[in-house]
Amino acid sequence: MIRIVKAGDRRIEKFNARPAFPEEAEKAAAQVLADIRRDGDKAVLAAVAKFEGFEATKASQLKVDLARVSADGIDPKIVRAVNDAHRRVLRFSKASLRKDWSMKTPRGGSAGEFFSPMDRVGVYIPGGTAPLASTSVMTVTLAKAAGVKEIVACTPAGRDGKVNPVLLYALKLAGATEIYRVGGIQAIGLMAFGTKTCRKVQKIAGPGNAFVTAAKRQVYGYVAIDQVAGPSEIAVLTDGSVDVRWIAADLLSQAEHGSGYEKSLCVCTSAKQAEAIRAEVLRQTETLSRKELVQRVIDRDGILIVVAKGVAEGLEVVNRFAPEHFEIMTKDALKVMKGVRSAGAVFAGAWTPESAGDFVAGPSHVLPTGGAANMFNGLTPDDFRRRHSFVAFTQKDLAETKSTIAAFAAVEGLDGHGRAATIRFDV
Q1: Which one is predicted more confidently, 31 or 18?
Q2: In this structure, are strands 110-117 and 101-104 parallel, antiparallel, or unpaired?
Q3: Hey, which residues are catalytic here?
Q4: What is the model's pTM?
């Protein structure tokens, strides 16, 4: 059922609640990860056979031969699309990198920050209900732009051990240096703990289902992770100035992902708009190739339409939802955007559907979900770099600050700290 409610209705809070860590996923992740830590490749092979149906006889069969990955046999239109997306994402990524900087200290020294790329990172590319070739571009390209030398990619194969050729081409183009036919929890364990076949990485990034998310959370500390994420979601704020057909299509663009737990929130400014949008969503659902998957979302009350008194109240409804994707389909969308506080990515104006961000616009589509947009950011190239602060004092800088250093050292009972500063001035 697609409900229509007014802003302030208690059912909105129920809609906003998205459990991040299902118990069954947590238990499964703990068991598989423990097996991989203990048995390495043997446990990875067993998990791949059990959960993916690909029965490799030795771990080396899990590794894709990059020399054999090419655009041969792929529709040229698709190759051009992958190349176009990669070019745009790479350009955005390079422009977004934080720059080294420094400032002068009061007595002639300097302080600042500089950045260095991680040495070896891992990315996870989902391949369950849909082979996400776009995610290859939206993760690996960022790591490459950051200067990472070794980029490991894991993605599930079919029972025959084959991986979608477009996905493989996108991975190679984007800069993956190793690719493994491993999905799910076992992929996270492989990258986090390392085996004889695959050395461990320093960080894991990329989206995944509840089991992948649980695994990422449990390996945090062994490796860094980008974020924990769940089913896809979108919020659309409209004031009636954009065609309801467009609004409906955008709401459905996230509902078709396949888990059945996706969320689509529409906030409009009149009951008439709400009824028209609901009718159009139901009509378009019948035309989609994945309509059964969308219907699961509808049946679970995953699509909600809220009627607000105006754009300002509607914006507050969306901020409380903290969506992964937020479309502002109003007049003066860029002006309205200044009031956004919680959203993974914002799409402003009638000609900016969320799918542009999914595939080609430039920013990564790896974004926080489940309300985490109120505390996490989307993936950026800087997530694949290390930040280093530096201080280069002169003698005069230390002379000016040694009394402050000594005072803190005395308060905290750390006389060695104080001496490290004052001893330099002993005659």
Answers
A1: 31
A2: antiparallel
A3: 324-325
A4: 0.92
